[in-house]
Amino acid sequence: MTYQMDAAGALLATDLPFPKRSGKVRDVYDMGDRLLIVSTDRISAFDWILPVGIPGKGTLLTQMSEFWFGFLDFPNHFLSSQVPDELGSQLEVGPLQGRVMVVRKAQVVPFECVARGYLEGSGWQEYQANRVVCGIELPADLQHCSRLPQPIFTPATKAETGHDMNVGLPVLVQELGEELATRLRDCTLDLYSRAATHAAQRGIIIADTKFEFGLLADQLLLVDEALTPDSSRFWSADDYQPGRSQDSFDKQFVRQWLSQTDWDKNSPPPALPEKIVKRTKQKYQEAHDRLVS
């Protein structure tokens, strides 16, 4: 049996002997006491999986997550980036190499934990409306992409379909209890601060990022991916200037291209031109090389 990819970077292995759940980018296989996470080359934007993938993207995401799990020295679910032996005896594993994470199972917290150090995306949209982001009052004179006086915690719901919705800390307190909600906030901001310091030394601004956490008994674990271009906004420090959109090393480049087309965001998206695919791959590669190498 072989494990192949289609044109969109989806990995095809319908007869793997494990239950499968597919997300926008990753395929997750339940191996009993562990999970097998396979990062595909799929790319999503505006809640759609695009019909063309970014070659090698899944490998870069896996390598970056593995780096951050080690660098941050925070309890996490990561066990190995090697294809499990039981799979090696059942299929040709070449396409899986470099894009696999074997992880511990955990009870995933049903919120995305977002840290923002700069004003962009949905945070900028909220701020324009009332100078508040997730219930946090901010100075009245901030511009698009301004650095915030201090990083803020802006959790969001985890929507299976459609947009995630920003919520405030009080919602987490109500749903999860004050102790866990406070731990999530404090850990999110600490992880963001340490990652941002490392990135700044490499000429990259981490404008914002999302973390996901899980519970294993009473231990809080960092799960899913960590600080990749799919889960973060990475900007070039050399070109940073508030008041405008920034040169980025993430999929914002793809979003901008799509926004310039006549796509209505309600019907299947257009295929990315080869030059956009190539440039996106270069941006992901540069983020990897600056942060991990």
Structural features, described:
This protein has helices at 57-72, 85-88, 121-130, 169-176, 178-201, 252-259, 274-292, and strands at 4-5, 11-12, 20-22, 26-30, 34-39, 44-45, 48-49, 78-80, 100-104, 107-108, 111-118, 132-133, 136-137, 147-153, 156-157, 204-216, 219-223, 232-236. The chain folds into two domains: 4-104, Phosphorylase Kinase, domain 1 (2-Layer Sandwich), CATH 3.30.200; 107-250, ATP-grasp fold, B domain (D-amino Acid Aminotransferase, Chain A, domain 1). The protein is globular. The mean pLDDT is 89. The protein is α+β, with helices and mostly antiparallel strands and 293 residues long.
CATH class of the largest domain: Alpha Beta
Beta-strand portion reads 25-35%
Work out the oligomeric state of the chains in this entry: single chain
How many angstroms separate the termini?
Answer: 35 Å
Indicate the structural class. alpha+beta
Q: Tally the beta strands.
A: 18
Q: CATH H-level name of the largest domain... which superfamily?
A: ATP-grasp fold, B domain
Query: Which consecutive residue ranges, at least 5 long each, have pLDDT under 50?
Result: none
Assign the CATH architecture of the largest domain.
Answer: 2-Layer Sandwich
Total number of helices:
7
Give the averaged pLDDT, no decimals. Answer: 89
